[in-house]
């Protein structure tokens, strides 16, 4: 019997002997250990594992010995802040957004001004105006305005080049999913299709939107809040917490993040860092 098989068998025996609640927790932790034995190393240690408050940590010389530069965005100009903000606010997750126009044309595009909330579960996108169209709305925003529906597909490493190919300044009638060789899957509660190659899909309906104006008073972007009305999680990345909640396994998802310029990032080393308990405020 291999070392992994022996480890798995002993884990099951230990969990069974401890009862359901404790056993589930042990199984969760041992499962991570087993996962680490069976895959390339991803989990590491925090950068300063021996740190204790209020100890000061060393600042790198290239930071400690340099001055801060003050940059007024109104002096720079809002549009020229783009390279600064996308290189400073990093890493950013990428929303791969599928929409359909009111006359049935498919659109697919990645957006990295993207985050989420959980009660109710919502995604938040910022969709900038299209400079190549004289400041008009991008196809994605036009379609969301018209149909109030979209899907968000989580971007993973194994189909990154295909996803990246969809972000060209194509004409509205171009089907980016077909153009990049990606595969459509029908959704259950909305009309826009999902992307089969993605391991996590979120069907969304427009909940709120907010138009933002630049320094010249012109509309520059729309903040979109979409309520998630259906999740789809591939069994290959789906995991369970000790309490039974579904979560997505980082090792299996291989998520890709956006950095500055044309640079993307892999999640190649991660670590756990617990929150301080409330008793620290009394010390």
Molecular structure report:
- The chain contains nine helices and 14 strands.
- The chain has helices at about 5-15, 20-40, 60-65, 75, 80-90, 140-145, 160-165, 175-180, 250-255; strands spanning about 90-95, 95-100, 105-110, 115-120, 120-130, 150-155, 185, 195, 200-215, 220-235, 240, 245-250, 255-260, 265.
- The longest helix is centred in the N-terminal third of the chain and has 19 residues, at about 20-40.
- It is globular, with a radius of gyration of 23 Å.
Write the topology of this structure.
Elements: H1 3-17, H2 20-38, H3 61-64, H4 73-76, H5 82-88, E1 92-93, E2 95-100, E3 106-111, E4 114-118, E5 121-128, H6 139-147, E6 149-154, H7 160-164, H8 176-179, E7 184-185, E8 194-195, E9 200-213, E10 219-233, E11 238-240, E12 246-248, H9 250-253, E13 256-258, E14 264-266
Transmembrane segments: 12-31
InterPro entries: Flavin_Rdtase-like_dom (IPR002563), Split_barrel_FMN-bd (IPR012349)
Keywords: Flavoprotein, FMN, Membrane, Transmembrane, Transmembrane helix
């Amino acid at each position: 019997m291999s070392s992994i098989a022996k480890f798995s068998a002993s884990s099951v025996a230990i969990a069974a002997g401890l009862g359901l609640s404790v056993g589930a927790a042990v199984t969760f932790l041992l499962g991570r250990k087993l996962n680490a034995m069976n895959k390339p190393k991803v989990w590491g240690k925090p950068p300063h594992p021996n740190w204790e408050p209020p100890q000061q940590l060393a600042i790198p010389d290239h930071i400690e010995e340099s001055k801060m530069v003050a940059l007024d965005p109104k002096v720079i100009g809002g549009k020229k802040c783009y390279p600064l903000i996308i290189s400073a606010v990093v890493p950013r997750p990428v929303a791969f957004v599928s929409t359909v126009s009111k006359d049935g044309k498919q659109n697919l595009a990645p957006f990295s001004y993207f985050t989420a909330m959980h009660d109710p579960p919502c995604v938040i996108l910022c969709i900038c105006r299209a400079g190549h169209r004289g400041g008009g709305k991008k196809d994605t925003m036009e379609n969301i305005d018209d149909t109030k529906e979209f899907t968000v597909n989580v971007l993973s490493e194994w189909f990154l080049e295909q996803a990246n190919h969809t972000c060209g300044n194509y004409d509205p009638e171009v089907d980016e999913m077909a153009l990049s060789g990606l595969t459509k899957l029908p959704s259950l509660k909305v009309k826009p299709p999902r992307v089969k190659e993605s391991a996590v899909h979120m069907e969304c309906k427009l909940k709120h939107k907010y138009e933002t104006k630049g320094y010249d008073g012109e509309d520059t972007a729309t903040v979109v809040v979409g309520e998630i009305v259906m999740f789809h999680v591939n069994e290959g990345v789906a995991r369970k917490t000790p309490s039974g909640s579904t979560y997505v396994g980082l090792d299996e998802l291989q998520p890709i993040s956006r950095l500055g310029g044309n640079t993307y990032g892999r999640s190649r080393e991660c670590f756990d860092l617990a929150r301080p308990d409330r008793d620290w405020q009394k010390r």
